[in-house]
Amino acid sequence: MQEYKKIFITKDEVVPTAKRMREAGVPLAMIHGFINKEGKGNVSYEYEVGTGIESYTVDGENSLPSIESIYDLGAQWAEREISELMPITFEGLDTSKRLFMPEDIGENKGQILVTPMKELINQRFPGKEAGK
Amino acid sequence: MSYIVPIGPYHPALEEPVHAKLYTEGEEIKDAEVFIGYNHRGIEKLATQKNYIQTLVMVERVCGICSHSHAWTYAMALEGIAGMEVPKRGEYIRVITEELERLHSHYLWIGIALHIIGHDSLSMHTWDDREAIMDVLEELSGNRVNYGIVTIGGARRDIDDVKKMHILEMLDKIEKSMNRLTEILLNDKTVALRTQGVGVLTTEDALRIGAVGPQARASNVCVDVRKDAPYAHYEDFDFEKVSYPTCDVFSRVVIRVLENYESIKIIRQALAMLPDGKINLGTKIPKIPEGEYMCRHEAPRGQLCYKVVSNGGEFNERVSIHVPTFKNAPTVPTMLKGNSVADAGLIIASIDPCFSCMDR
Questions:
Q1: Which end of chain A has fewer surrounding CB within 10 Å, N or C?
Q2: How many CB pairs under 8 A join A and B?
């Protein structure tokens, strides 16, 4: 079984951790984001360390520094996806163009993971209902 | 003269929708942008409203080609949370199905690539061989796609001696025709003219962007989860990590052809060493304790990651899926630069994209 290790870090440790990993040649497997029970962001940076995964997690922050300058497009796409799908922003990330969601949904905040379907449909097709 | 050439979201060279903008000077592509999301079905959101068995069925439908990879990786994540030890026979059956899936996926891609470069006769021959693999998968599972082989804690269907014999007969047949196919792919002038030196992704760029799977290995980045972070007893099998140094579309053709031989080797070994015993831990909805786990899996297109968070209840707290195409698609603009517009379709297709996977 692949080893999985979770490590909590603060917002200020995101960039130094990414730099340390990049310098050690550790690949960034993925950045996962979701909203916790208090409605705050929970973002984990999953690094492939040896045969396992080290998951560096920041809990309770809705704004984090971007690590695009460290992990390039591998980080940029993941950050853009998260920022379009849920109310989490990445400081320094260019979000002037949508990667994932249509330009006209939710005024640059897709939030599809936290917005009721009815509201999303109403934003896109005012007056319409699902299935009709 | 400068132009912006839109490709997609619906385009004859694309099997699924994606949108690219090519910024050109005459015929030459100077820059490109890719936009995704046209296949977004909200599967991660839906997973939070379904129990574990329902989710297993649903994630198998994220993709029609690597369906088994999705179901298996989701099951691996749950087994990781619960600390389940899957019976070895069940793991071997998963491996056999996975390698059959990899074979038909690579055959599909080779056929599509040949179609795009205009070598339709060879494309049809390739897909003729692929049918033999699909027939075996249908015999194993009852389906051509969405095999339903995986359950949480093992496999749902066993492989008896008759099925074993049919798989081995099929492997002998396709290996013979693959030798001929390999010879043509590596030496044919049409294939060489359309693929050599086209869509180059250097080793440095592949590492910088974080390419995975055959796309990385074709840029001489030797990564393969089956070897680097073995799971499901892959360490029992003797097979090679394949890489190739030319970093172009030709390299991506070579990689997939050579990987087919490795998959055949793995299947033969798994069938020969298939252990006796149970194939699963039971098919009832399992109790998954509170916890989280993320695992990596080598799907046909590269590293597939599933992260599952459980609150100990009936439903998933969170399922996050990250697929190889999401890692490989950002390499497309880099590969397109400096090439002609006529090669754009082939270059985009050369990552073996699955937008259905990527958008979820």
A1: C
A2: 88
